[in-house]
Design goal:
Order of helices and strands of chain B: EEEHHHHHEEHHHHHHHHEEEHHHH
Helix content of chain B: 40-55%
Structural class of chain B: alpha+beta
Distance between the termini of chain B: 38 Å
Number of helices of chain A: 14
Oligomer: heterodimer
Number of strands of chain B: 8
Structural class of chain A: mainly alpha
Radius of gyration of chain A: 22 Å
Largest sheet of chain B: 3 strands, antiparallel
CATH superfamily of chain B: Cytochrome-c3 Hydrogenase, chain B
Number of domains of chain B: 1
Distance between the termini of chain A: 34 Å
Largest sheet of chain A: 2 strands, antiparallel
CATH class of chain B: Mainly Alpha
Strand content of chain B: 5-15%
CATH topology of chain B: Cytochrome-c3 Hydrogenase, chain B
Helix content of chain A: 55-70%
Chain lengths: 376, 381
């Protein structure tokens, strides 16, 4: 059996549904539903639904993972009661929020108030349409996936600011201001760190970047870029120590103070969605994606869906690192954050770009002996 | 953004209680603040005039909800002076034990809330976990975890159970270990120093001018502690140092409070040793009939009994976890105090908010206010 891919799975499903429908429908509609155009179109729809469902379930599992991990760090057990070890707790919380009313402040701007969170979530979800998960499990054929993903990722400050401003609340406005300043400041080192990866890999295509890491992970030679990327990603994800836009001690809940019910759930969900994007990008860019180093015995990579399995393991471990940071660091202040961003992170990321260029020019990666530099 | 006033409170995560801090800000910079108290006023001083002496103890637990026993101690000391009663020595040691445990409990509560204000979530849970041990200890001899109603005029309600001494020693050993961990989590973090050093500075002169007492005053380098300067109960008999620091900032207040907890452990080891070696009565002999009774007569019966006792005035000052609390009790010869007046240290500490908040940033307000350790129950009473 050939390697199952996202396309083949959704196409097979679409075929299955079409033939099942065809067996019960009269000949006129039957010809329509079994025609290749309809089957292909339906396959694309299934394809999208699979991505959406997988993303959502993983995001919710990520919340569970954080709650459990954070609980252990704090000497408690985390969610325990709904489902096995609290696995279904977040679904319960989500349904509770779904049933709740969203109260719009009287003087809030209608369009901005509802458009902001929706766009925030939708754009963040869109990133997963282009992130590869394993070989064949991607939309494929896009040469600039990395650039596109980061471009969509950078939409967020706009929507956060729109929803914060339209809430007509002083705390929201301050949170929105902080969020915009922070995200813009950390967008630059984030992209520069990515540039280092791109220089070494020689491509903006995430598939190529992953396959360039067959011999060694970029985390080795590009350790500086990795550090800058993780720190900038923490700021982009607005997690402790960089969670000042929603610093609950002074800003109540920051830019989503006025939101309740499902729109609050949108924000919460999207925060974790972006955390998932961050973890996935770290895995893809620096930790070899779904591949394992070649010296790993093949039994670890030959079982079905091994790529997805290892990809998930790495993603959750990287997110575990973010949780660990959250459990052990205090929050910094806005001016300190921005000073670090402009004065330290950008020079460091420029240095990492320079180092990457040296690596490529020297055609030698001094990690384990002298391995041939990729991407040339 | 132009200048604007924002209300931090009365329901805001920073407030740790029910009060309102009005802040005028320009962007992130604090231009002016205006603390507003009074949301939690219950008229405890007035209610006290209608109650028997021992019934007021119930209200004292409601003043500061994290240091109820310290306030009970304060009130009881003043009433005993007003009623010309001397408690037995063992009762005094038990009260000291209570107060020092209360100080540790209150400071741990402060630690938990304070680190949460600067975004450290883990130590918050650690603090709550460790404070629970102290609450368990209280439960073993008062039966309650928060509103103890344990002290009585002339002594304490009941003696300590035999399990108390070993359990208390175990708790103290555990806490000694944990305080090291607390310091690692805070002082070991450079972000903590970035956030807290040179923040909320209030020099010794300003502290004295505004009547600020307690850890805030000692953090400015003033070595003042009522347990040393005006010893009450048996504090003169125990050996301890006054914790001082000289930064006058948030970090200094942190250091003072952590050192105070260590000194409290030192005091507690001495008092527990004493209590182990000296069994005896915990209530004074020859109490007035209405005081010694488990339930003092109330209503008409109570009024018929009155107006035959010696009059007196009572004043007490106690180094409460938050600062110097003072009480004044007037005994006009009835079984109700004629007038009760308290001086809350936190009221003075909070009132000076303008002195230590203006000029810093909005993000600095929670750590600074956290370092003040407000307990609104005793501010408003």
């Amino acid at each position: 059996m050939s390697q199952a891919s996202l396309y083949s799975v959704s196409y097979d499903l679409s075929n299955l549904i079409a033939s099942a429908l065809g067996s019960i429908l009269p000949s006129g509609p039957r010809a329509f539903v079994t025609s290749s155009d309809v089957v292909t179109g339906f396959a694309v729809l299934i394809f999208a639904v699979i991505i959406l469902a997988a993303t959502m379930i993983n995001t919710i599992m990520l919340i569970w993972w954080e709650r459990k991990l954070l609980g252990r760090f704090m000497d408690r057990r985390g969610a325990m009661h709904v489902g096995f070890a609290g696995l279904l707790q977040n679904f319960a919380d989500g349904f509770k929020l779904f049933r709740k009313d969203t109260v719009k402040p009287r003087d809030a701007d209608f369009l901005g108030f509802y458009f902001g969170p929706t766009a925030y979530m939708v754009t963040s979800l869109a990133i997963f349409g282009i992130l590869p998960i394993s070989s064949g499990w991607d939309t494929g054929a896009l040469p600039l996936t990395l650039l596109l993903a980061l471009a969509i990722f950078a939409f967020a400050p706009l929507f956060i600011f729109v929803s914060a401003w339209s809430s007509n609340n002083k705390y929201s406005l301050m949170g929105g201001m902080r969020s915009a300043a922070q995200m813009i400041a950390y967008e630059v080192p984030l992209l520069l760190a990515v540039v280092a990866v791109v220089i070494v890999a020689g491509s903006f295509d995430l598939n190529t970047i992953v396959y360039e890491q067959q011999n060694y992970w970029f985390a080795g030679p590009l350790i500086l870029a990795l550090i800058v990327f993780v720190a900038a990603m923490l700021a982009e994800m607005e997690r402790i120590p960089f969670d000042l836009p929603e610093a609950e001690a002074e800003l109540v809940e920051g830019w989503n103070t006025e939101y309740g019910g499902m729109f609050f759930a949108f924000f919460m969900f999207t925060d974790y969605l972006r955390a998932l994007v961050g973890s996935v990008l770290v895995v893809l860019l620096f930790l070899g994606g779904w591949t394992l180093p070649t010296w790993v015995p093949s039994v670890a990579t030959s079982f079905p869906l091994a790529g997805i399995f290892w990809f998930m393991v790495k993603t959750y471990l990287v997110f575990g690192l973010f949780v660990w940071i959250r459990a052990s660091l205090p929050r910094v202040r806005t001016d300190q954050l921005l000073r670090v961003g402009w004065n330290r992170m950008i020079p460091l990321s420029l240095l990492s770009v320079f180092l990457a260029a040296v690596l490529v020019t020297a055609k030698c990666v001094p990690v384990f002996g002298c391995l041939p530099s990729p991407g040339i | 953004m132009s200048e604007m006033w924002i209300n931090m409170g009365p329901q805001h995560p920073m407030t740790h209680g029910l009060w309102n801090l009005r802040v005028r800000i320009d962007g992130e910079v604090v231009l002016d603040v205006d603390p507003e108290m009074g949301y939690l006023h219950r008229g405890i001083e007035k209610i006290s005039e209608d109650r028997h002496y021992n019934e007021v103890v119930t209200l004292m637990d409601r003043t500061c909800y994290v240091a109820g026993l310290a306030w009970e101690h304060l009130y009881i000391l003043a009433s005993e002076q007003a009623l010309h009663i001397t408690p037995p020595e063992r009762a005094e040691y038990i009260r000291m034990t209570c107060e020092e445990f209360q100080r540790i409990g209150s400071h741990i509560m402060w630690y938990a809330a304070f680190v949460n204000d600067i975004g450290l979530m883990t130590p918050f849970l650690y603090g709550m976990r460790d404070r629970d041990l102290i609450l368990d200890l209280y439960q073993s001899f008062t039966g309650a975890r928060m509103t103890y109603e344990y002290m009585r005029v002339g002594g304490v309600r009941n003696d300590l159970p035999p399990t108390f001494v070993p359990q208390a020693r175990k708790v103290l050993d555990w806490l000694t270990e944990r305080f090291r961990e607390y310091d690692q989590l805070c002082l070991g973090s450079s972000i903590f120093h970035k956030r807290c050093d040179h923040l909320g500075v209030l020099k010794a002169n300003d502290c004295i001018a505004h009547g600020i007492t307690g850890p805030m005053l000692r953090s400015a380098g003033v070595k003042r502690d009522l347990r040393k300067d005006r010893p009450y109960a048996q504090y003169a008999a125990v050996d301890f140092d006054v914790a001082v620091a000289d930064g006058a900032d948030v970090t200094a207040r942190y250091l003072v409070r952590m050192e105070e907890m260590r000194q409290s452990i030192r005091i507690l080891r001495q008092t527990i040793d004493w209590l182990e070696r000296h069994p005896g009565p915990v209530m004074a002999d020859h109490l007035p009939r209405w005081l010694g009774a488990p339930y003092a007569p109330t209503g008409r019966e109570g009024y018929l009994l009155k107006r035959n006792y010696a009059k007196g005035l009572g004043f007490s000052a106690v180094e409460e976890p938050h600062g110097e609390a003072q009480a004044y009790v007037v005994n006009e010869g009835s079984e109700h105090p004629y007038r009760v007046k308290f001086r809350s240290p936190v009221f003075a500490n909070l009132s000076a908010a303008r002195q230590y908040l203006v000029g810093y940033r909005v993000a600095d307000i929670p750590p600074i206010m956290g370092s003040v350790d407000p307990c609104i129950g005793e501010v408003d009473r």
